[in-house]
Design a protein that fits this description.
With 196 residues, the chain is an alpha+beta fold. It is built from six helices and eight strands; from the N terminus they run ααβααββαββαβββ. Strands 1, 2, 5, 6, 7 and 8 form a six-stranded mixed beta sheet that branches. Strands 3-4 form a two-stranded antiparallel ribbon. Helix 1 packs parallel to helix 4. The chain is flat.
Length: 196
């Protein structure tokens, strides 16, 4: 019952990244690097919710709906949007590197040419791809260009984290027009880069 109440309450909780806005106003950075942050918002929110319950509040049966998980994912999307809006208001160039998805399926996995929808960029022979969306369904490039920036570099690569777990990492550089090209941003020597 408490999990259902929380699921009903979450949509009314409006995220406000006031400390980030204040820091940007005080320091007025020309470039902001956001590394391995946005893909963690949902995980941190899940852990906070779990800490408020004696037992895990999630629906155990994967075939039944889980109102709390659905509400928390929607709220995580609101948090990400609020965070990106503050970054967009900053006027700074943005360098973003984050988990785009966590892939649990085994077997061969290929990363094709860039696709706006990350799921279409992945191909696998055999078993279907089992993955979780680390950004609550948001596609970031359209959100970044709303403030007059251009996405001048976009890359994704597969990063093997543990047996049976690979992360699809996404790197985006959004700059004000006229600043020129940007070199590759893939820092992982053991990754599988996207195809040109």
């Amino acid at each position: 019952m408490a999990a259902l109440r929380l699921a009903g309450l979450l949509p009314s909780q409006r995220p406000d990244p006031a400390p980030l806005r204040a820091w940007i106003a005080a320091h007025r950075p020309g470039t902001i690097l956001v590394a391995n942050v946005m893909g963690q918002f949902g995980v941190v929110a899940e852990r906070l919710v779990e800490s408020a319950f004696l037992r895990p509040p999630w629906e155990a049966d994967p075939d039944r709906p889980d109102p709390l998980a659905t509400a928390l994912e929607a709220w995580t999307g609101q948090v990400l949007r609020a965070f990106l809006e503050v970054l967009a208001e900053s006027g700074a160039d943005l360098w973003l590197v984050h988990d785009r998805a966590v892939i649990f399926s085994g077997g061969g996995l290929e990363l094709g040419p860039w696709e706006e929808a990350w799921g279409r960029q992945l191909t696998s022979e055999g078993a279907p791809i089992e993955a979780s969306d680390a950004l609550a369904g948001l596609e970031l490039p359209p959100l970044l260009t709303a403030g007059g920036r251009e996405v001048v570099r976009r890359e994704r690569w597969l990063w093997p984290v543990a047996p049976g777990q690979r992360h699809l990492i996404e790197a985006l550089v959004a700059r004000r027009p006229g600043w020129g090209a940007v070199a590759s941003v893939n820092p992982c020597p053991h990754s599988l880069p996207q195809q040109p």
